[in-house]
Amino acid sequence: MQPLLAIWNSTIFQKWVMAVTGIVLVGFLAGHLSGNLLIFLGPDHMNAYGVELRELLHGSVIWVTRIGLLLAFVLHVRAGIVLAARNRKSTGVSNSKVTNKTSTIASRTMVYSGLLILFYVIYHLAHFTWGLAHTEYYSYVDSLGRHDVYRMVVESFRNPVIVATYSLAMIVTGLHLNHAISSAFQTLGINNRRINGLIRSAGPIVGIALVLGFLSVPLSVVFGLVK
Amino acid sequence: MNLRLHIWRQTGPSDHGMLRAYNVNNVSEHMSFLEMLDVLNEELIEKGEEPVAFDHDCREGICGTCGMVINGRPHGPLSRTTACQLHMRSFKDGDEIYIEPWRATAFPIVRDLVVDRSAFDRVIQRGGFVSVNTGNAQDGNAIPISKIDADVSMDAAACIGCGACVAACPNSSASLFVAAKIGHLVALPQGKAEAATRAMSMVLSMDAEGFGSCTNHYECEAACPKGISADFIAQMNREFMKSVF
């Protein structure tokens, strides 16, 4: 019997933590995106969704989700930093000539894209959830007295700086997901010769689809499709 | 052909080491890479200089002793080929060739291109074995094993423990090596007795030796002279979790 702490700190256990929490976070992104896309149905759907999200089962659903996501996020970031630091120590001196055959820019920069996403998420929450950044967009109220999410989003994306930061963050997220999704399957051992091709090509496709979905909102505002 | 070599020279573990340039002339394309280094060493000895230290043994690609990073690739530019089976016909006159040792904290440099790979031996000692009855050898085919299982086990058992996977990995992870050993034994009924503890012991030992973690770049698979599949790493990840619960 190995002590529990030794197992928890082992590289493969931390990789499992990374993969499981990563899947939770990708699931969250999919849910978040489906909410965002309501903007194409108009202000009423968007604002009603905002109220429903906050009040479902007396607000318990959103808090359980938030706590779960926070936990997943913290564990994911922690595992990423711990493993990256460990790997840096393991490699030591590098060769004067290094030729990469199969690794990609995405796979070699996961810890950097991850940290950029971390900083962006904090700013993003401050903007759209806490109303601490860009406060001028946060206080709109629609005719039914609801928090006007629709107008907050549209007005925000009329600001070119916000569009640029958002787009950049989405591209970095795309880079991260490009390696992340297929990688999670390998880490969890969901892998055999029949499904490997599918997993390794479907991962990047799902990642790119999510990112394009998120980008569709600011682009629609910029091009005047959503007013 | 005439070549210009840049070889990593380091007198001992505590020395800093540096690349030094050497010219080797009249190299035959039929020579193996190691024979080309033998020629260089003879010239160095005649001149009264220290020859380049490198590991080698069988020189037929099966023992896993030789290994050096040639122009940034472990074992050189050919796939599924050890350095001893790489021939000079893969190079051309006037080439500059960079020759460096395996780089990993867990593989300290002994001298020049020789690294200490005993970390692999210690990982093997923690679980790379099966328990057998002593006495007479069993009759052949006494234990039925399916052709599929035998083939999978043999694919993993092809690992010669050369360490190219560690050298190729951007994280200096030994995952492919450890996964091959686990995959080799767990596929067979003889390996079942220790299956519950093997993955745990070997993975914790791999971590303790200071190897990095796998981030699924698959550089190891591309560099492996025996073509071991990274699928075995996924299997190791499963086996590890099975041994947790």
Can you describe what's shown?
The complex is a heterodimer of chains A (227) and B (245). Chain A is mainly alpha-helical. Chain A has helices at 4-9, 11-36, 43-55, 60-91, 105-108, 110-128, 149-156, 160-187, 196-222. Chain A has one domain (10-88, 107-222). Chain A has nine helices and no strands. Chain A starts with a helix and ends in a 5-residue tail after the last helix. Chain B contains eight helices and seven strands. In chain B, a hairpin with a 2-residue loop joins β3 and β4. In chain B, α2 (118-127) packs antiparallel against α6 and α3 runs antiparallel to α5 (175-186). At the A-B interface, α1, α2, α4 and α8 of A face α6, α7 and α8 of B.
Straight-line N-to-C gap of chain A: 63 Å
Element-by-element helix/strand order of chain B: EEHEEEEEHHHHHHH
Tell me, briefly, the overall form of chain A.
Answer: globular
Number of strands of chain A: 0
